[in-house]
Write a structure and sequence with these properties.
GO terms for molecular function: nucleotide binding; oxidoreductase activity. With 345 residues, the protein is an alpha/beta fold. The chain folds into two domains: 140 residues, Rossmann fold (3-Layer(aba) Sandwich); 167 residues, Dihydrodipicolinate Reductase, domain 2. 35% of the residues lie in helices and 25% in strands.
């Protein structure tokens, strides 16, 4: 079988750390790479054995020579690019967040369905080894009915690992702050791991350090369709280290998912006989970012004709939760303690 021919739009850190090496690892041929401003575009192209580089993504599409496109640009560009790719019969893998509005999400989904092409959203953290293992444990029912979840995801900010990408701090390009960046991942993980839909979100946000009108830190309270409750804390001002952890508690026990891939998951639960069982579980896979797994899943869906494992409707559901959290911050939907006198009216 001939290798899948793929083009990549965007040559920033997500492309360099994830999509470009991931495509090569999966055996794809990267026939084109486009970025309208990256000063080292030619060098990046040479590193990843790209046939041709472009400064104009439409010119790249006009030139053709590929069956699929991965989009690694700021989210305000996702919809226009994905829709045009679908119109040309190209399969699309687009980075998260899917877009900056539900209207754009709907337009992307409609274009893909009309063209009969695959639209997959790169929820790469679903493919991280620790999260895949956690999903197996939860699906086995060892915790019983899930009651509570608590997730934390924070680091020093997007400028730490991608200094040139200032769009993260611009409302017109990012749509939201840390909630759309890191919160998106945790909202998706809680939804996927529990197998429940997000029904309501409340949030508090603050801007402690970053020079932006967007939030650089936030705390979310999430209600899910199975009556599970979740709290999620996300921030761009963590120091000196980062954290990406999750704890899930159910009627029979608790599962701790650590930040570091080198650390095992910890499971503690009560068996049907009443015995408390404690165990640790190490990941067999070395895919700590999840990007390689997401790319393999995308290419497999194209090759086999199977549905994308994370389609546009999945991305839209998470985007709705992101927008709900952002709206909650804007409306400040909290009850001041000065306005209450008793528990009951």
């Amino acid at each position: 079988m001939s290798p899948m021919r793929v083009a990549v739009i965007g040559a920033g850190q997500i492309a360099q750390r994830g999509h470009l090496p991931g495509l090569l690892e999966a055996g794809a041929e990267i026939t084109a790479l486009c970025d309208n401003s990256h000063p080292q575009l030619e060098e990046i192209g040479a590193t990843y054995h790209v046939r041709q580089v472009y400064r104009d993504w439409r010119a790249m599409l006009d030139a053709g020579g590929f069956e699929a496109v991965t989009i690694c640009t700021p989210p305000f560009l996702h919809a226009e690019m994905a829709i045009e790719c679908a119109r040309r019969g190209l399969h699309v893998l687009v980075e998260k967040p899917m877009a900056v509005s539900l209207e754009q999400c709907d337009q992307m989904i409609a274009a893909s369905e009309q063209a009969g092409t695959i639209l997959m959203i790169s929820h790469n953290q679903r493919f991280m080894a620790a999260h895949r293992l956690a999903k197996e444990i939860l699906d086995a029912g060892l915790l019983g009915r899930l009651y509570l979840a608590h997730g934390v995801f924070g680091h020093g900010g997007p400028e730490i690992w991608s200094p040139s990408q200032q769009w993260y701090f611009r409302p017109d390009r990012a749509g939201a702050g840390v909630i759309a960046d890191l919160g998106y991942h945790k909202l998706d993980l809680v939804r996927w791991l529990t197998g429940q839909e997000i029904t309501a979100v409340g949030a508090l946000g603050a801007t402690f350090e970053k020079q932006t009108s967007l939030e650089d830190s936030a705390v979310m309270i999430v209600h899910l369709s199975g009556n599970t409750l979740a709290t999620i804390q996300v921030s761009w001002v963590f120091r000196p280290d980062w954290e990406n952890s999750l704890v899930l508690r159910g009627e029979r026990g608790v599962l701790f998912i650590p930040t570091e891939a080198s650390q095992p998951l910890r499971l503690s639960y009560r068996s049907s006989s009443g015995q408390v069982i404690e165990s640790t579980h190490r990941c067999a896979s070395s895919d700590t970012s999840g990007w390689f797994g997401a790319i393999r899943a995308f290419l497999t869906a194209i090759e086999t004709g199977a549905p994308a494992p994370i389609d546009g409707k999945e991305g839209r559901a998470v985007m709705a939760a992101v927008l709900a959290a952002t709206r909650s911050i804007q409306k400040q939907t909290l009850i001041p303690v000065t306005e209450v006198e008793t528990i009951h009216d």
